[in-house]
Amino acid sequence: MSDGESVEASGERSVAAGRDIGSVSTGDFPMHVERATMLPAEAFGMAPCASRVCHLPYRTDQFVGRERQLGLLDESFGDTGGVVVHAIHGLGGIGKSTLAARWASERTADFNPIWWITAETPVELDAGLAALGRALQPALVDVLTEDAFRERTIQWLSANDGWLLVLDNVSAPADIKPLLARVTRGRCLITTRRGATSWRGIARTVDLDVLEPAESVELFTKIYDGDRYGVEELCAELGCLPLAIDQAAAYCREAEITPRAYLDLLARHPAEMYAATAEDGDARRTLARVWQVTLDRLADCPLAVEMLRTVGWWAPDDIPRAYLDHLGGPVEVTEAIRRLAAHSMVKVRGELLSVHRLVQAVTRAGDRETMAERREAAAALLIEVWPTTHLFGEAERLWAGHADALSNCMDGEFDTERVTLLLTMASGHLARANRERSVALIERALAAVERNPSWECSDIVRGQVLPVYVINGYMNRAQPLLEADLAQKRERLGAFHPETFMARRMLALALQGSAPEQARDLRRLIVEDAMTALGADHPVTFESRMELRRGASSEPSDRQVIEARIAEAVRILGQDSWTVTTLEQQLLTALRKSGDLGEAVELAEKVVGKYRALLGDRDAQTVAVRSEQCGILVEAGDLRRAVELMPALTADLARVAGDTPEARDLVRRVKAILQRIAK
Q1: What are phi and psi of 210, to 5 degrees?
Q2: Contact by Cβ (8 Å): 542, 569
Q3: Most buried by CB count within 10 Å: which residue of 356, 388, 560, 624?
Q4: 473: helix, coil or strand?
Q5: Has this prediction a pTM greater than 0.90?
Q6: 102 with 66: CB under 8 angstroms?
Q7: How many CA atoms lie within 13 A of 394 on its CB side?
Q8: Cα gap 210→205, rounded to integer Å
Q9: Has residue 675 got a pLDDT over 80?
Q10: Closest residue by Cα to residue 169 from 247, 102, 117
Q11: Is 59 helix (H, G, I), strand (E, B) or coil?
């Protein structure tokens, strides 16, 4: 007996002790104990939690949106029986922890205890479980060790229901499997960067994406109540990522700068701004730090890190996996993509990858020398995978979009010869689809070679300027170049060389809009000179005659006239020439008007195939011909075939339609066809 406590022992050979004893003997087996701790009665019970226990460190007063995800959690955690485990997964900084805290904070009447554990490592998980044990049984704080508390907490969770554990930022499912294997009731809400496939058989998953634009603005203005100039633009630049918006808004508030000013700083000093936070902010919760943790975890897969730093220079969406095949062997590349997807750094949809634009920006950021080196590698890889099936094909335009994105990452003054060549190639593929960017790229490339005239690509760049102007319809810029080109060809090749005739024809095309009469006179002279110098059956002569006819009057509607011209064009130019294709389209219209729908249906299939082969599926002219084909099918009574073609047609129409008279007319025609099908 000690500490003045009075205790009694009863029963044969029993021992009584108030608290600590040094030795004891029952008469049979003497035992010496250096120190023994006597546990209070509650140490032996697993009773439900009698008082309210809640630990949620995250504030949620700035929470916006996420109604769908909150509803999914309500639905899932409403299930009865057994343990329910749900994992919110997504990119670092996308708001997983905030969503979990918001949902848990609204369920304090439904669960007890509610306990938040930072579970990034097994050590942190164990510490969090031990902390919960101390909160559940504070009388044992000075009695049990940390390990004993952790074990006792798991035993309590296994014996009781009605509790909610939030396990935040779990790095690997294996870290929490031992815990989940022992608890058979209650609720576990997990946040993690690991993708959905990592949680198969362990937890249901909620894939969290960025905020909607309006929600992003709402979040920003909850934190920052100053001048809103540029806030929508800033939120868009930050990719509607909650952490980035929170970081930017807090910085603007404390520095007393506008969103527009923050955008300017971000453009000029990206590395510093992605690492910056407000004075009272958590330095570990900046964009640069959050994703560096993931990159550190991928250090054992250098190809994954290299891959991420490469795609950082391209467009964020629709990155073909095939572009990355040149970085390593098939197994290595596949494994690197898998690792990136598993850590939510990229999303994989079949053969296409996407990456958040801020992940790109952070992985690009660095000193100028490092950035230039990485951009050069990204440009070299794009050149290596250059597709050349069609000039205006979908694959080519997709590729050109990635080259265009690379051009926007650094100013033109840093363009190397390789980057300049890349932009020149991309300018041709963007022609017609994105005229403004097509011209901007070739003019940027031209400026680069004028600064560096010794580059080997100089002639290639200069040779591309004129075609890009002409194809995009920038005839006012093309005309002086055409005049200079014609003068050079006359001097070098002579007045009657085919290339000189081609230069004259291009000049007539440029004059068509600003001086139609001058263009018509020039075309007439070209035909006369070509007949004399080259003969009536020369391709240049025939093409010149066709251009003179098109410029002088509307296209013919008489079937026999068009068929005669097609026969002549096939004889002189060949069946696959573009002129033959355009004449066949004229014949298609004539057949439709004359009511020869059977022939029109057959010819339409042929013409659409040619347009697809020459221009690709989604070129505006191809879409126009495809719409005409559907109209002919409807008129011919083949509604089944028309209905089959319309979904793909309307989807492609949405990609090419713009605010131009031609685009509006195309939309009107397709809508008319849809209405006829509906009837």
Answers
A1: -70, 170
A2: yes
A3: 356
A4: coil
A5: no
A6: yes
A7: 14
A8: 16
A9: no
A10: 117
A11: coil
